[in-house]
Amino acid sequence: MTGIGPGSVTLKDLAAELGLHPSTVSRILHGKAETARGAAAPVTAQRVRDLAKKVGYSPDPQATSLRTRRTHLLGVIVPRLSDLVLAVMYEGIDEAADDANYSTFVMNSRDDTSIQRHKMEIMLSRRVDGLIIGDAHLDGNILDELAERKVPFVLMNRAIAGFASATCDDTLGGALVAQHLWDQGHRDVSIIAGEPYASTGVDRTHGFVSRFRALGGTIPESAIVWSRFDTLGGHTAANSILRDTDRRPSAIFAVNDFAAIGAMGAANSHGLHVGRDLAIVGFNDTSLAAQLPIALSSVHSPMHDIGRVAVKLLLGVLNGDAVESIKLLPVLCVRDSSDFTWAAG
Amino acid sequence: MTGIGPGSVTLKDLAAELGLHPSTVSRILHGKAETARGAAAPVTAQRVRDLAKKVGYSPDPQATSLRTRRTHLLGVIVPRLSDLVLAVMYEGIDEAADDANYSTFVMNSRDDTSIQRHKMEIMLSRRVDGLIIGDAHLDGNILDELAERKVPFVLMNRAIAGFASATCDDTLGGALVAQHLWDQGHRDVSIIAGEPYASTGVDRTHGFVSRFRALGGTIPESAIVWSRFDTLGGHTAANSILRDTDRRPSAIFAVNDFAAIGAMGAANSHGLHVGRDLAIVGFNDTSLAAQLPIALSSVHSPMHDIGRVAVKLLLGVLNGDAVESIKLLPVLCVRDSSDFTWAAG
DNA sequence: GCTCATTACCCAATCGTTTGGGTAGTGAGG
DNA sequence: CCTCACTACCCAAACGATTGGGTAATGAGC
């Protein structure tokens, strides 16, 4: 009878064992300091706590939620966890949620609207206290619905005007890359811009273009190629950029490391040596970037912290605070793939 | 009053609205066919279902679990979701769990015993119906405890004798690589073997070594280097292998793509051109392998299916079935990093 | 010795379901 | 006309915790 694990012993059991009423035990174990003090004599309280620890009492969260209408559950929706960026953010969420005694569901929506809806309904039917949305689309349809239904939520990674979010300062990140490539002498550049519905790609692209133009450069619309965020998407996009041998750029900015890796593959198959014939810069500085055969320049974004911040924001919302979006600072990491001084013009 | 989302309307509400008793409504909506038929006249049943759909009734899972002692929750523990391999497996889990109307918690243990324990306790205190363990260590200590506590669980990715698991046939996978490298003329090979506590690395290494020896080759113990599973681990291991210029192998088998990528980086910094001066083969065939500047040969393992199978096994266990471990078949994918015929000897 | 506050508790309702066990009402069979 | 089996429901007790509201017993104050 040595506690075969949580779930075996209840509040009532403890109370019976101690000759107390369950409510008294409850107040002692779970009440705030004041309640607890009012509930029992210090010596009784200690007896209760001792026994609880000895038998390994752990309250039934289902019963608690039923009564309190709070599950201490958070829902997280991401496009795909196999996207390293989201996976790392989720690690941050996992950590922060644990610290705050919350547990999290995480589901993949594959950026598909109907799956997004489906997963959301599952989460809500599970009665999560709030949602962290990592797959927001710029049209924001679903978010408006959520807001109308008064579901507490925050965005992560991708920002949408009007909603609280935890992101990287993507515009700044893009600008950093533009500055770097400009300084290296590149005047003819292309951008692999990601999916048009994702603020990450859009903002990084916008930040890049603005800065590059501010420096006096030109970027025709045709130099911006939308793509999927994975290696294959990057490969395809780079192919379409490099196919045109008349007007090949000397540098490519991919808004995502994986797309950048795909672009490296494409460059290779076009006989171009990355870092010498063609500069490539990625974004996120995932753990692979520095380890690639040709080390990839990339903008470091604090992915882990973004996850942590998302949790903090959401807990703020649940607490009724007015929360503000937070943009974390990116840092450019220059490596072999773009570290080469080009003759200007 | 148009249902502001799940959670607003209860069985009792429905019953009152229809002039029925909650129990009747419950039987109609949630009972098995027979119960439902015995519970009400067909026309009544239809009225109930219509109203339920109209107001968007969704049962409170907390209340249900409290009564039934089943949460329809599964716990998943992995070393780290930022390991693409585990992330993809989790996508399979997510899918299969959804199909079966289960939801999953997933937590990262970083392969740290105390975190493993901690996360497990959280899961159990949440009253999950069962666990999928993706971070089992060969010593199996924690698993024995779990078994003793009669917690339903299955292993995933890593196998441990005596427990049901869903894995790749790692021994075979290793053998495939050995055969391939041998056929390519390599006689002097090294292995980046991963963490010694993980069956994946151990079995892949063992499969490789056995086959290579069976073919007549020799592999000294010193040619087997244990390492972390990430790029950095692979880099470090490869460095230690390549440092010894007297006895440099012509090929390296890394039991994991990320380690292989790290090894490529190391080879590079030693001035070796992968695929020409040194063959490298990875494992898992993650989506990156084919896209790298030098495409990486790798053993394809059905990660997504492994996740799905893990869920199927666990549901079997929950159902009281006697389940057997399942090993899915690996397939070797040869690419540039090892596609070169060497002169023998 | 009486009032009054304080201490240290107990009581019972409640959260939303499920489920074993009724029970009126109907129709058939004998 | 009585019995018996259905049909179509209802009743109430759980599941485990929380929480607003008691209430005896003790001690202090006057």
What does this structure look like?
The structure is a homodimer of 345-residue chains. By secondary structure, chain A is α/β, with parallel strands linked by helices. The first copy, chain A, folds into three domains: 11-59, no CATH class; 71-168 and 304-328, Rossmann fold; 170-301 and 331-338, Rossmann fold. The first copy, chain A, is built from 13 helices and twelve strands. In chain A, α6 packs across α13 and α9 (170-183) packs across α10. Chain A is elongated and about 90 Å long. The N and C termini of chain A lie far apart (82 Å). Chains A and B meet through α5, α6, β2, α7 and α11 of A and α5, α6, β2, α7 and α11 of B.
Concise account of the structure shown:
The structure is a homodimer of 345-residue chains. Chain A is of the alpha/beta class and 345 residues long.
